[in-house]
Sequence to fold (244 residues):
Amino acid sequence: MIRLTLYFCFFALPAHALSCLTEAFEDTSFTRCTVDTARADLRLFWKGEDDRPLAFFSNLKSYLLNQDLTLKFAMNAGMFRKDLSPAGHYVEAGNQYRQVIRKAGPGNFGMLPNGVFCIEGSSAKFFKTNDFLVQTPTCEFATQSGPMLVIDGALHPRFLENSTSKFIRNGVGTTDQGDQAHFVISDEVVTFHQFARYFKDHLGINNALYFDGNVSVIFAPTLDRLGIGRPVGPMIAVVEPASW
Fold:
Protein backbone atom coordinates (compact mmCIF):
# COMPACT_ATOMS: atom_id res chain seq x y z
CA MET A 1 0.00 0.00 0.00
CA ILE A 2 2.80 2.43 0.83
CA ARG A 3 4.56 1.75 -2.45
CA LEU A 4 1.32 2.37 -4.35
CA THR A 5 0.80 5.74 -2.61
CA LEU A 6 4.30 6.93 -3.51
CA TYR A 7 3.73 5.90 -7.11
CA PHE A 8 0.54 7.95 -7.29
CA CYS A 9 2.09 11.07 -5.77
CA PHE A 10 5.06 10.98 -8.12
CA PHE A 11 2.88 11.09 -11.18
CA ALA A 12 0.46 13.62 -9.66
CA LEU A 13 3.14 16.25 -9.10
CA PRO A 14 3.29 17.67 -12.63
CA ALA A 15 -0.44 18.42 -12.65
CA HIS A 16 -0.11 20.53 -9.50
CA ALA A 17 3.13 22.23 -10.50
CA LEU A 18 1.45 24.34 -13.19
CA SER A 19 -2.03 25.78 -13.44
CA CYS A 20 -3.42 28.22 -16.01
CA LEU A 21 -6.66 30.20 -16.02
CA THR A 22 -8.36 33.20 -17.55
CA GLU A 23 -10.09 35.66 -15.24
CA ALA A 24 -11.43 39.21 -15.08
CA PHE A 25 -9.98 42.12 -13.14
CA GLU A 26 -11.80 45.44 -13.37
CA ASP A 27 -13.80 44.18 -16.36
CA THR A 28 -10.61 43.28 -18.22
CA SER A 29 -9.56 39.73 -19.10
CA PHE A 30 -6.18 38.38 -18.02
CA THR A 31 -4.58 34.97 -18.51
CA ARG A 32 -2.36 33.70 -15.70
CA CYS A 33 -0.19 30.62 -15.38
CA THR A 34 1.03 29.90 -11.86
CA VAL A 35 4.15 27.80 -11.42
CA ASP A 36 5.17 25.96 -8.27
CA THR A 37 8.91 26.59 -8.51
CA ALA A 38 9.82 23.66 -6.24
CA ARG A 39 7.93 21.13 -8.38
CA ALA A 40 8.08 22.49 -11.91
CA ASP A 41 11.11 22.47 -14.19
CA LEU A 42 11.24 26.19 -15.02
CA ARG A 43 13.91 27.35 -17.47
CA LEU A 44 14.88 30.15 -19.84
CA PHE A 45 15.60 29.52 -23.53
CA TRP A 46 17.05 31.71 -26.25
CA LYS A 47 18.97 29.81 -28.92
CA GLY A 48 18.62 26.37 -30.47
CA GLU A 49 21.15 23.78 -31.51
CA ASP A 50 22.13 25.83 -34.58
CA ASP A 51 23.07 28.78 -32.31
CA ARG A 52 20.25 30.83 -33.80
CA PRO A 53 17.39 32.35 -31.76
CA LEU A 54 14.46 29.97 -31.39
CA ALA A 55 12.11 32.90 -32.06
CA PHE A 56 8.83 30.93 -31.95
CA PHE A 57 7.28 28.48 -29.49
CA SER A 58 6.92 25.95 -32.29
CA ASN A 59 10.71 25.95 -32.65
CA LEU A 60 11.09 25.63 -28.90
CA LYS A 61 8.79 22.59 -28.92
CA SER A 62 10.88 20.89 -31.61
CA TYR A 63 14.11 21.77 -29.82
CA LEU A 64 12.81 20.22 -26.60
CA LEU A 65 11.51 17.07 -28.32
CA ASN A 66 15.04 16.40 -29.51
CA GLN A 67 15.96 16.29 -25.81
CA ASP A 68 12.99 14.04 -24.97
CA LEU A 69 11.22 16.95 -23.24
CA THR A 70 7.68 18.28 -23.58
CA LEU A 71 6.73 21.96 -23.49
CA LYS A 72 3.93 22.60 -20.98
CA PHE A 73 3.97 26.40 -20.79
CA ALA A 74 5.96 29.28 -22.30
CA MET A 75 6.01 33.06 -22.47
CA ASN A 76 8.34 35.68 -23.91
CA ALA A 77 10.61 36.72 -21.04
CA GLY A 78 12.29 40.08 -21.33
CA MET A 79 12.93 42.73 -23.92
CA PHE A 80 15.14 42.00 -26.88
CA ARG A 81 16.97 43.67 -29.75
CA LYS A 82 16.17 43.45 -33.46
CA ASP A 83 18.36 40.36 -33.75
CA LEU A 84 16.28 38.76 -30.93
CA SER A 85 19.20 38.93 -28.48
CA PRO A 86 18.41 39.86 -24.86
CA ALA A 87 18.32 43.61 -24.17
CA GLY A 88 19.90 43.16 -20.75
CA HIS A 89 21.42 40.63 -18.38
CA TYR A 90 20.79 37.05 -19.43
CA VAL A 91 21.88 33.75 -17.87
CA GLU A 92 20.89 30.34 -19.19
CA ALA A 93 21.84 27.07 -17.47
CA GLY A 94 24.47 28.91 -15.44
CA ASN A 95 26.11 30.57 -18.47
CA GLN A 96 26.05 34.36 -18.70
CA TYR A 97 25.42 35.71 -22.19
CA ARG A 98 24.71 39.36 -21.42
CA GLN A 99 25.95 41.64 -18.66
CA VAL A 100 23.74 43.75 -16.42
CA ILE A 101 22.70 47.13 -17.78
CA ARG A 102 22.25 49.58 -14.92
CA LYS A 103 21.82 52.94 -16.68
CA ALA A 104 18.53 54.67 -17.33
CA GLY A 105 17.61 54.99 -20.99
CA PRO A 106 14.83 55.51 -23.49
CA GLY A 107 11.95 53.09 -23.70
CA ASN A 108 10.38 50.86 -21.10
CA PHE A 109 13.55 48.87 -20.36
CA GLY A 110 15.34 52.00 -19.15
CA MET A 111 12.46 53.21 -16.97
CA LEU A 112 14.24 52.75 -13.66
CA PRO A 113 13.92 50.91 -11.45
CA ASN A 114 14.01 47.90 -13.72
CA GLY A 115 14.92 44.46 -12.45
CA VAL A 116 16.29 40.96 -12.85
CA PHE A 117 14.18 37.81 -12.60
CA CYS A 118 16.35 35.10 -11.08
CA ILE A 119 15.79 31.34 -10.81
CA GLU A 120 18.03 30.02 -8.07
CA GLY A 121 17.55 26.42 -6.97
CA SER A 122 13.86 25.83 -6.31
CA SER A 123 12.91 29.51 -5.98
CA ALA A 124 12.27 32.41 -8.34
CA LYS A 125 12.77 35.97 -7.12
CA PHE A 126 13.27 39.55 -8.26
CA PHE A 127 16.03 41.98 -7.65
CA LYS A 128 16.02 45.65 -8.50
CA THR A 129 18.97 45.99 -10.84
CA ASN A 130 21.17 47.93 -8.38
CA ASP A 131 20.35 45.43 -5.61
CA PHE A 132 21.25 42.59 -7.94
CA LEU A 133 24.68 44.09 -8.54
CA VAL A 134 25.27 44.49 -4.81
CA GLN A 135 23.98 41.09 -3.70
CA THR A 136 25.34 39.12 -6.71
CA PRO A 137 23.02 36.11 -6.36
CA THR A 138 23.93 32.87 -8.11
CA CYS A 139 21.21 32.45 -10.71
CA GLU A 140 20.94 29.32 -12.79
CA PHE A 141 18.65 31.32 -15.08
CA ALA A 142 18.20 35.11 -15.16
CA THR A 143 16.66 37.73 -17.40
CA GLN A 144 16.69 41.51 -17.02
CA SER A 145 13.75 43.59 -18.12
CA GLY A 146 11.89 46.69 -17.15
CA PRO A 147 10.28 48.48 -15.68
CA MET A 148 9.48 46.87 -12.36
CA LEU A 149 5.70 46.79 -12.07
CA VAL A 150 5.44 46.42 -8.30
CA ILE A 151 8.30 47.32 -5.97
CA ASP A 152 8.11 46.19 -2.34
CA GLY A 153 4.33 46.44 -2.42
CA ALA A 154 4.13 49.78 -4.27
CA LEU A 155 3.44 50.57 -7.92
CA HIS A 156 6.26 51.94 -10.03
CA PRO A 157 6.29 55.71 -9.34
CA ARG A 158 6.07 56.66 -13.01
CA PHE A 159 2.82 54.80 -13.72
CA LEU A 160 -0.13 57.12 -14.37
CA GLU A 161 -3.69 56.04 -13.69
CA ASN A 162 -5.01 58.20 -16.54
CA SER A 163 -2.37 57.13 -19.09
CA THR A 164 -3.54 56.67 -22.67
CA SER A 165 -0.74 54.23 -23.54
CA LYS A 166 -2.42 50.83 -23.80
CA PHE A 167 -1.03 47.55 -25.10
CA ILE A 168 -1.33 43.82 -24.66
CA ARG A 169 1.26 43.39 -21.87
CA ASN A 170 2.92 40.49 -20.09
CA GLY A 171 5.02 40.07 -16.98
CA VAL A 172 5.70 37.99 -13.89
CA GLY A 173 5.25 38.33 -10.16
CA THR A 174 6.51 36.07 -7.38
CA THR A 175 5.55 35.38 -3.81
CA ASP A 176 7.85 36.75 -1.12
CA GLN A 177 9.11 33.22 -0.44
CA GLY A 178 9.86 32.67 -4.13
CA ASP A 179 7.89 29.41 -4.14
CA GLN A 180 5.36 30.55 -6.74
CA ALA A 181 5.69 32.56 -9.93
CA HIS A 182 2.65 34.09 -11.61
CA PHE A 183 3.09 34.64 -15.36
CA VAL A 184 0.42 36.99 -16.67
CA ILE A 185 -0.65 38.35 -20.04
CA SER A 186 -3.50 40.77 -20.57
CA ASP A 187 -6.06 39.58 -23.09
CA GLU A 188 -6.98 43.18 -23.83
CA VAL A 189 -4.97 46.37 -24.09
CA VAL A 190 -4.16 47.86 -20.66
CA THR A 191 -2.11 50.64 -19.15
CA PHE A 192 0.96 50.00 -17.04
CA HIS A 193 -1.03 51.19 -14.03
CA GLN A 194 -3.83 48.65 -14.46
CA PHE A 195 -1.45 45.84 -15.32
CA ALA A 196 0.61 46.50 -12.18
CA ARG A 197 -2.53 46.68 -10.03
CA TYR A 198 -3.53 43.23 -11.22
CA PHE A 199 -0.40 41.90 -9.48
CA LYS A 200 -0.59 44.16 -6.44
CA ASP A 201 -4.32 44.37 -5.71
CA HIS A 202 -5.68 41.17 -7.24
CA LEU A 203 -2.85 38.73 -6.54
CA GLY A 204 -1.37 40.45 -3.49
CA ILE A 205 2.10 40.34 -5.02
CA ASN A 206 4.78 42.66 -3.60
CA ASN A 207 7.24 42.43 -6.51
CA ALA A 208 6.52 42.05 -10.21
CA LEU A 209 8.44 42.69 -13.41
CA TYR A 210 7.33 43.79 -16.85
CA PHE A 211 8.43 41.53 -19.69
CA ASP A 212 7.10 43.31 -22.77
CA GLY A 213 4.11 44.75 -24.60
CA ASN A 214 2.59 44.51 -28.05
CA VAL A 215 4.78 41.49 -28.91
CA SER A 216 3.53 39.56 -25.85
CA VAL A 217 2.65 35.90 -26.43
CA ILE A 218 1.86 32.88 -24.28
CA PHE A 219 1.85 29.13 -24.85
CA ALA A 220 -0.77 27.56 -22.59
CA PRO A 221 -2.23 24.52 -24.39
CA THR A 222 -4.71 23.74 -21.60
CA LEU A 223 -6.38 27.05 -22.53
CA ASP A 224 -5.93 26.55 -26.29
CA ARG A 225 -3.35 29.35 -26.32
CA LEU A 226 -0.55 28.34 -28.70
CA GLY A 227 1.37 31.61 -28.80
CA ILE A 228 1.33 32.17 -32.54
CA GLY A 229 2.62 35.64 -33.24
CA ARG A 230 5.72 37.68 -33.89
CA PRO A 231 9.21 36.30 -33.19
CA VAL A 232 10.56 36.91 -29.69
CA GLY A 233 13.89 36.72 -27.90
CA PRO A 234 14.27 34.99 -24.51
CA MET A 235 11.47 32.63 -23.47
CA ILE A 236 10.54 31.27 -20.05
CA ALA A 237 9.13 27.75 -20.09
CA VAL A 238 7.99 24.83 -17.98
CA VAL A 239 9.19 21.50 -19.37
CA GLU A 240 8.84 17.88 -18.33
CA PRO A 241 10.14 14.53 -19.57
CA ALA A 242 8.26 13.41 -22.66
CA SER A 243 7.63 10.00 -21.09
CA TRP A 244 5.43 11.46 -18.31
